[in-house]
Amino acid sequence: MTSLKSKLKEDLTDAIRARDELRSATLRLTLTAITKEEVAGTSPRVLSDDEVRKVIAREAKKRREAAEAFTLGGRAEQAEREKAEGVLLDAYLPQQLTDEELGAIVAQAVGEAKAAGAEGPRAMGAVMKIVNPKVAGRAEGGRVAAQVKKALAG
């Protein structure tokens, strides 16, 4: 078992003992998502810490999107719970990059792509291939794509 998954299980046990319903429910759902990912496919496998982080990031993103939908639907109480669950899951993820840090990484990648001969909006794929490994887990794909488009357009 990976160290991150072990930490999640320990934190779940602590949350149950402390009768923290929000924390225990969120961790249970996250551990279930991890288990589903482990048994998906042709044969069961153990996820690495990076793969577990991806599952946690996916779950946190679901919470943010659900909070937004509940807010638009006029269900503020449910939206607050989803936001709280998202914040709880964010604690298990690496620190997100600021817009300035992401912009610097994108600018460097655009320079590398131009040096390789890719220019204009068609260079999007080449730049994304350079940027994604550098920002893995520290910035959402939509944010990265928006920065790359902005850098290539201007």
Verbal overview:
The chain has 154 residues and is mostly helical. Helices cover 75% and strands 0% of the residues. It has 7 helices and no strands. It has helices at 3-17, 21-39, 49-72, 76-90, 99-115, 124-135, 141-153. It is globular and about 60 Å long.
List its salient traits.
154 residues; 7 helices; single chain
- Report the strand count: 0
Distance between the termini: 47 Å
Average pLDDT reading:
86
Strand content: under 5%
Secondary-structure map with pairings?
Elements (H helix, E strand, L loop, with lengths): L2 H15 L3 H19 L9 H24 L3 H15 L8 H17 L8 H12 L5 H13 L1
Helix pairs in contact: 1-2, 2-3, 2-4, 3-4, 5-6, 5-7, 6-7
Offer a quick outline of the entry.
The chain is an all-alpha fold and 154 residues long. It is 75% helix and 0% strand. The longest helix has 24 residues, at 49-72.
